[in-house]
UniProtKB/TrEMBL annotation:
The keyword Protein biosynthesis applies. Residues 29-93 form the Translation initiation factor 3 N-terminal domain. Belongs to the IF-3 family. InterPro entries: T_IF-3_C_sf, T_IF-3_N_sf, Translation_initiation_fac_3, Translation_initiation_fac_3_C, Translation_initiation_fac_3_N. NCBIfam families: infC (TIGR00168). This is Translation initiation factor IF-3. It holds the Pfam family IF3_C. It comes from Polyrhizophydium stewartii. Residues 102-179 form the Translation initiation factor 3 C-terminal domain. It comes from the Eukaryota. Keywords: Initiation factor, Protein biosynthesis.
Length: 184
């Protein structure tokens, strides 16, 4: 590859990265600005080095896309991908995200009454059954009752979730993390 062609390819790569990163989408079809690309079929076999129009002529544009996979090699690598498969993959990724690492938090004072603690524990049980991770923070308020409250919390939530690590004591608060036993 000549030096002029290499410089043009580097400039195209920089422009593609800037626009694709802004949209967080792969570069597809006619938006691929390279003179030649290495084409990989949907099954994974190499179809050789072709120009973008030649590569796009290899498949039905209504059902397939030519997607830029790698710009670090010369010529850049493109893969022929089914639009339906790409849509399903994106849909599954979106579906997996919502509660993957959502941590719900409950804050409790050490002066809490038994009835109020029972209500908070019911809410905590509900969250753990839904599959959320839970962080319970107990604030010390003068009576030094936090260890008793923490023991009650751990005892009542043990059947719905497991304690993730040791309780963290920092200043006037104690933090206990729970992992749900029911997976989504």
């Amino acid at each position: 590859m000549s030096a002029g062609l290499r410089a043009a390819a580097d400039a195209a790569t920089a422009a593609l990265h800037a626009t694709a990163a802004a949209r967080d989408e792969p570069v597809k079809n006619a938006k691929i600005n390279f003179p030649e690309v290495l084409v990989i079929s949907e099954s994974g076999e190499s179809l050789g080095v072709k120009t973008v129009p030649e590569a796009m002529a290899l498949f039905d544009a209504k059902e397939m896309d030519l997607v830029l996979v790698s710009t670090s090699q010369m010529p850049p690598v493109c893969r022929i991908v089914s639009k339906k498969a790409a849509y399903e993959k994106k849909k599954n990724e979106v579906r997996k995200r919502p509660n993957a690492s959502v941590v719900k938090e409950l804050e409790i004072n050490s002066t809490i009454t038994d009835h109020d603690l029972e209500i908070k524990l019911n809410k905590a049980t509900e969250l753990l059954e839904k599959g959320y991770r839970l962080q319970v923070t107990v604030f010390e308020r003068g009576n030094k009752n936090s260890p008793v409250v923490i023991k009650k919390i751990i005892a009542s939530l043990q059947s719905h979730g497991s304690v993730a690590g040791m309780p963290d004591v920092s200043g006037k608060k104690i933090i206990v993390n729970f992992e749900s036993k029911t997976k989504k």
